[in-house]
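User: Can you write out an input/output pair for a complex, sequences first and structure second?

Assistant: Here is one pair. Inputs:
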Amino acid sequence: MTEPTSIIALPAAPLHALEIWSNPQAVAVRVHKALDFALPAMNRSASNAAITLMRFEPTVWLAEGDISVLADTLGDDGALTAIGGGLVRFRLAGPGWRELLLEGGVFDTSAAVFPVGATAATVIDHVGVRLWVESEDACIAYVPSSFAQSLHHFWEEALPLIGA
Amino acid sequence: MSGPMRIATGDETIPFTFDGTTYHARPGDTLAAALLANGVGLVGRSFKYHRPRGIMTAGIEEPNALVTVGKGGRAEPNTRATDLFVYPGMVAMSQNRWPSLSFDVASIFGLAAPALSAGFYYKTFFGPAKHWMLYEGFIRRAAGLGNAPTEPDPDNFSQRAGFCEVLVVGAGPAGLKAALEAAEAGKRVMLVEQDAVPGGSLLRDPDPSIDPAAMVEKIKALGGLVLLRTTASGYWDHNFLTLTQRLAEPGEVPAHGFAQRLWHVRAGRVVLATGLIERPVPFANNDHPGVMLSQAVRSYVRRWGVLPGKRVVIATNNDDAYLTAAALVAAGAEVVALLDARATGPAAPAGVTVYHDARPSSVTGRKHALRKVTALIGGSEQSFDADLIAVSGGFVPVSHLHMQAGGKLEWNEEAQAFIPGGTPQACETIGSALSPPPAPAVAPAGKAKKSFVDFQNDVSLADIDLAWQEGYRSVEHLKRYTTLGMATDQGKTSNMVALSRLAEKQGVTVPEAGLTTFRPPFTPVTMGLLAGAGARNAGAHVRRIPLHGLHEAHDPIWQPLGYWFRPRAYPVNGESLQQAALREARTVRTVAGLSDVSTLGKFEVSGPDAAALLELVCATTVGKLAVGRGRYTFMCREDGMVSDDGTVWRLAQNRYLLTSSTGGADRMAHFISYVRNSLRPDLKCSVVNVQEHYAGIALAGPRARAILAALTGAEPPRHMGYAPATIVGVPVHVLAASYSGERAFEIHVEATHAAKVWRVIEAATRAEGGAPYGLEAMELLRIEKGHVVVGGEVDGRSTPQDLGLAGMLNKAGGFIGAAGLTRPALSAPNRNNLVGLISLEGAIPEGGMLIGRAGTSPQGHVTAAARRILEGGAIALALLEGGHKRHGEELTVTSPTRGEKARVRVTSPHFYDTAGERYRD
C-alpha cells in the first residue's frame, strides 16, 4: 500500500543566513577544509552530519545545524545571522509532494529539474518559501512563521487533489 | 417543438430540473441535449428585446441558451446549456424573464425595438439632463444578464503550475495525432480538451479508423497529461498559457471541495488544434427557437441520439450541411428542403430535394415553436412547413489563441474566413482551423431589422447599417456602438457575419474592413477561479504574529494591518473600543503597559562596512553611534520625500539592528536589498531581514524600568541605550526606545521563545497595576506625543523639513534623497508642514480639511485625531500650508462627507512632555 502524502511541521532548528562579501574563493577553500564539503552552487545543497548548507542567493546560504565550525572559517569575509525564529520547517513527504508543490506554485518540481539535493527560493500561493529536496520521498519547506499556519492549511486542503 | 425528441431507452437515469420541472437525462448529456431530448425548445430570453431563444449550437459558442445553474452561493449565471453536462440533482433556471419563460412581460420591449436601436442609450445623453435622470433608472434596471449569487461561494478553487515540452490544445483528430506523435517522440506532453470526452469533430462525424479513447490511453501510458473539461483560456507571452479546468460541473457539489482549477502552464511548443465554428445565416427571425447550426443538429443526432426536429429545412452555402441532411434522414427525420445558395453542390441523400440559388428569407412560428420557413429560390419566394431549420453560413477557424499569442491572420477568399498565419511564439495551428471548407459569400435575404447577427446583444443587420449611417467606420467603433461581439460569447458566431456587412457597406473587402482584437479569456471564467484558494482571507493569507494565540486568549478586537492581524484593544467588562483604548492609554501614562510590536521591520546589518551602508539608507548619522547606543532615524526616497522611519542600534562593533515601520517593512526590505545589491555591492557587509526571527514586546510607562529591572536582574539601559539581557533564561535584546512618550523599552526575543517572555512580563506588569495595550491606545499615545506614523503624516509627499525632522539630517549628506532635497521647490514656504491642532469647539474629524472660513479653499488636512489621555480635550496632527509659521492661528476643520466641523488652534505637534523629562529616570 502506498503511503499517503503528508505535511508535518518539524521542531525548531538552528537556522542561520551565511553571507560572504569578500574573498569568496579563499572562503570556499577554508569552508571545504573545515566542513569536508564544498560550498554548494546556486540551487544546490551540501551537508555533513552536523550541518547542511543550501544556496538560494548568489552570496547567501541557509545554514541548518551546528554553525560553530563554520563561524570560525569566516573571519572578516562574511557573517552568520540567526534567522531560525522566523521560519517554520515542514516536511512534505510521500509520493505526491512534487505535485502538491505545483498547487499555487510557479516552478517545475519534476525530478528531472528538481532532483534530490536541489534547493529553490520560490513562492507558493504568493507566500515566499525556500525548498530543499531532502530525498526522493520528501522535501523540506522553510516557511515564514507568520504564514506557516495558513500555508499548512492551504496544503492540507489541497491534499485530496493530489492525483485527482 | 412538442414532445420528446429522443426515444427513451431506460438510460435516462439522471434527474434534473429546469425552471422547476423535473426531467431525466442520459449520462453524457449536456443540458442542451437533455432539454431537446425532453422536448424543451424554449430555453431563454434575449438581452435587450426579451425575444424567445432556443438552442442554436452544440458547443461553447452558444449565444442563446444561457441559464443559471446551481443553488445558493454555488449558483452560476450565464452558463451555456451546451457546455454543461447534466449531473444528478442539477438545478437550472432560465434567465431574463418575468414572470415565466413562456410569458415574459418584458418581451413588450420588442415592440419598442425601433426606439431601442444601436447606440440608443448614447442618444439618451442628448437633450436636457433631467431626461437622462428618467432614462438612467430604466437602463440600469434593464442592464445585465443573469443574477450573481448573493451568498458566499462555498467551493474552493485551485491554481496549479504546469510544465511541458508540447502543449496540444484540442483533442480532435488533429490534436490527438499531434499529441500522440510528440509523446512517442519522448516529449513531455499536455493535451487539453474542453469537452468531457476526447474526439472533437469525431464525436459528430465518427471515423472508424480513429479511436480517440485508445489514443488518449496511449498518450497517458507514455507519460502525457490529458486534461478533459479544460479550456485553454489565455495565451500570454513566452508560451505561458492559462487553462481553466472544471473539476466539477457548474453548480455541482465538488468531490474534493474544489470546483475549478486554473493552470499556469509554461510550454516549450504549443500546438493549436482548435477547429472551426460554424457561422449562422442572417434572415428574418433567424433567432427563433428551432433555428440551429447545421453541425450542431448533426451532433445532437449522432452523439446524443436527439432529433431536434422532424420536418427539417437545411440552408447552406457549403458541402458540409449535406452531411447533416444524411444524418437527419438516417435518424428518421424528413428533410423537406435543402436550400443551397450556390449554383451547384454535391449529391444529396435520397429523398432530399435540393434547391440551388436558394436562401432562407424568414421563419415564423407559434408558441415558440417553428412552423414555417420561407425561402428565396431563384428570385421567387417559397414556403415550407418545418419545425427546424439547420443553417450553415460557412466556417470560422478558432484563431483566438493564435491571435492572443501575437499571431497574424490571413484572409481565405474561398472560405470567406481568416485563417491563422505567422506567430512570434513557438506555436503552430494544425487541422481544420487551417483549411476551412469553401463557403462563398451570400447576400442575406429578408428584413434587416429582424435579421440578427449578434444574438446575445440583439444586434441586427439594420443596427450595423444604422451605425454606418451615423458615421461609425472603424470596426472597433462599430463594436462599441452596437455592442456587437461583446458579452459571454464574445462574438464567436457573429463577428464574421457583421464584418461582411460592414465591408459591404464600405465597399471594401473583409480584410480591408479590419478585425477586432481577440483577448483572453477565450470563454468566460469565474471570479472564484481568479481569486484562488479559499484558505485565504480576502484574497491573501493571513500573517499571524508569534503571540497570536496568547492575545486570542484575551479576546481582543483584532485590527487588520496589511496582511497582519494585531490586537487593537483588549476590552474588559463590556467596554467599547474607545473606552478600552482610553483605559489602556491611561494605564501606560500612569503605571505601565505592554504591547506586541513584533511586526516592526527589523534588519540585522553586520560587517566592517555596515555603518557605511546604513548611512546610505538612513538620512541621519549612524557611524558615530557608540556600541550600546541607538537613535531615531528615518529614510528618504531619491526625491527627498520621507519614506519610512525607525531606530538604529549598534549591537556590537560591526553589528547593527535597524527597525522600521510595520506597514513599510516589505518596502524597506526591497529598498535595502536594492541599495545593498545594486548601488553598493562592493560594501563588505551583510543585511539580513530578521523581522520574523524576533518577536517584539514594548513595555512602557513610569513603572516600566522597575518591572524590567526585576525581570532581568540588571539596571535597564538609559533612554536610547541598548543592552543584551535574559528574561526567564531567554536571551533578549533590550532597546530603550519610546513611541508612547513614556520611559519605555522594546524587548526583542527569538520568536520561538516569545510566549514565555511575554507571560512573565505581562504578569509582572499586571502585578504593578498595568495591562496590555493595543493599537488604538498606541495611536492615542503617539498622537499626544507628536510622533509621526508612516501612512499618516509620512504620506510620501513630505520632506524631513515638512515633518520637523530637518535638524536630524546627516549634515555630511551622502544618504539617499540628499540630492533630491536640494531642489528649491522643496524649501518653498507654502509646503504642507506638520502641526498640532487643539480643539476650541467640538471633536476634530480625522481626515477633515483645514479651512480659514466657509467657502475658501482647503489649506491642509487632519492626519490623525485623538483626545488628551489624562486631561481630556480634542487634539490632532495635521499637515498645513506653511504650518510651521502659523502656530496660534485659528482655523476650521470640516468634513462635509460626515457633516462634522470643529474650530481649532494651530500649535506645535508635541502635546505631551515636550522637554522629554519622562524618558529620564
